[in-house]
Amino acid sequence: MGKALSLSMAVVVGLVSVTPSAAAEASSGYVVVLKDGRAPAAEYAVRQTFRHAVNGFSTDLTPRQAQALAADPAVAYVQPNRRVRADTTQTYPPSWGLDRIDQRDGDLDDAYTYSTTASNVTAYVIDTGVYTANTDFGGRATWGTNTSGDGKDADCHGHGTHVAGTIGGARHGVAKGINVVAVKVLDCNGNGTTETVAAGIDWVIAHHTSGPAVANLSLGGEADPVLDAAIRRLIADGITTTVSAGNSGADACQQSPARTAEAITVGSTSEGDDRSSFSNTGTCVDLFAPGESITSAWKSYPDSTNTLSGTSMAAPHVAGAAALLLAVDPATTPAQVAAHLVLDATPGKITDVGPGSPNRLVVVGTGSRPGYPIVANPGYRAQRTGTPMTIQVAASGGTAPYTWSAAGLPTGTSIGASTGLISGTPTQTLVNSPVTVSAKDSANRTTTVRFLVTVVPPGWTCPSGGQKLANPGFESGDTVWWTSGYYVDRWTGVNAPRTGSWAVKIPTTTSMGNHAVPEDVRIPQECAWSTLTFWVKVTHQGAKDDWDKLHVRIDGKTLATVLGKTAPAGYQQYTVDLSGHAGKTVRIWFTTWGDTANITDFVLDDVAVTLR
């Protein structure tokens, strides 16, 4: 029996090492790869012949026969026919991936914006098949081939349909008009072998139309030279190929096809921009994409959907992104598409990206094109008049050096034509005014970026200014506040409120964290000097503990920490700068961590979000 591969999918295989046995040997499946232009002695029963993905065949051999065949001068190598399967974890929250990939920041806006549907691009979904009758495909999905060996020309698993829906479903897809071709290489249990996957790739290369195309393999297993070689042939045929990094929480360089350098290897992130705990990491990962709790098309009936998690769900987001680029520039090579997606990806957003992994999250709709300069958007900027301003705009890709120009800059500022540095002392009052910066490379290819600038006099406050947090002193009990326990109360004694009759007491009774969270607050862009203030009193039920602390977090990032052991006596006020969250809706988490040995209480009162 061959070794197994897994649906994410990454396939990994090693060269066969055979030890002869004196006992009678049972035969099992092997894949034989021939040297170019060579053929072995015709004495083996061939199960599957490969002509395009690799030059070779699959057959049944005993270990002794495999060893003998490996010594044939016509043979490059012999390896076991390994198995593959899908890596997915069923979850139920609503999908969010499309909302995330069309914007740089993680503040979801309940919209997915796209400029093309990629109707001139073909997507080969090399997977468990595709339920072509799902209405998400609108008649654009067709059956290609079935090399899984199960004889069932249908997606009886669902994984492939889900993947195809993320690539090109009208409701769930990135490229909503793409033509989907089902290439079934995995059976109803999501399992396949080196043989079945290589045969599917072989079919794609033989039947690839002349137009732009992408292929997605959300599958994998051990390191596998056959699959690596097949993927390289697929890409050499002009098909941009995305593969999943794998779901072992390990090094993607130890799996195939994730380790294939020419492919785009994709890791998974959560809705909070954390690396998914299951996602493989390492230098073989090219970028990350949403992969947790992704809703897409399913196999059950024409309108069916399902919500799954895995790097299997991340890779098709990138396949769709590649299709959007190819739709605009069909002659772009796979290498150019891959380089562009990596360069244009949003840097620095992923928490715990993993050792060796790039902190890059896929993005679409930036207007950048392969081969053109990619200009990083510096984001919203706010400044006081009379105060020096510096904004460094950077570019990559294209052909350096770049020539810079800008329109809409505040009076008193300018951009360096050779540096991209905006500098000067603004004297003009502007509120949410657009600035357009252009970078032209030495081949006369120009890319522009647009961002907003606010410049106001000292002492100016935004029109919607003032304290915006409802029930800031808890005098209405727990109204608009959520806590992980019964912490809002009329506390007395050492835990008495600072003002009024109510406060929230957040104990350190668990290392998992106790929380107090108010309702979300919207901070308009022009209110760039907004602050969060709060009062905290620390009381101890036992000895002071180094572990006990209160964190203030927004978007998964800690903005302030109060240490229980060193906090002064009595109520102390703390201020958090919210300027970095202008233009966003924020959810503020007050979270305690500690242990049950020596409980510390953090009494919180008079919380305010003041827009300025």
Chain-wise SSE layout:
Elements: E1 5-6, E2 9-10, E3 28-34, E4 46-50, E5 56-61, H1 63-70, E6 75-80, E7 83-85, E8 89-90, H2 97-101, E9 122-127, E10 141-146, H3 159-168, E11 179-184, E12 191-193, H4 194-207, E13 213-217, E14 219-222, H5 225-236, E15 240-244, E16 255-256, E17 264-269, E18 287-290, E19 294-297, E20 305-309, H6 311-328, H7 334-344, E21 346-347, E22 360-361, E23 374-375, E24 381-384, E25 389-392, E26 395-396, E27 403-407, E28 413-415, E29 421-424, E30 430-440, E31 446-456, E32 466-467, E33 481-483, E34 488-489, E35 503-507, E36 514-518, E37 521-523, E38 531-540, E39 549-554, E40 557-563, E41 572-577, E42 584-586, E43 588-593, E44 600-611
Helix pairs in contact: 3-6, 4-5
Region (Disordered): 246-278
Biased composition (Polar residues): 246-258
Family: Belongs to the peptidase S8 family.
Description:
With 612 residues, the chain is mostly beta strands. Helix content is 13%, strand content 34%. The strands form 12 sheets. Strands 10-11-9-13-15-17-18 form a 7-stranded parallel β-sheet, with helices on both faces. It is built from 7 helices and 44 strands. Helix 3 packs parallel to helix 6 (311-328). The model is unreliable at 9-25 and 87-94 (pLDDT under 50). It folds into 4 domains: 5-82, Alpha-Beta Plaits; 89-361, Rossmann fold (3-Layer(aba) Sandwich), CATH 3.40.50; 374-456, Immunoglobulin-like, CATH 2.60.40; 466-611, Jelly Rolls. Strand 4 and strand 5 form a beta hairpin. The radius of gyration is 29 Å and the shape is globular. The protein starts with a strand and ends with a strand.
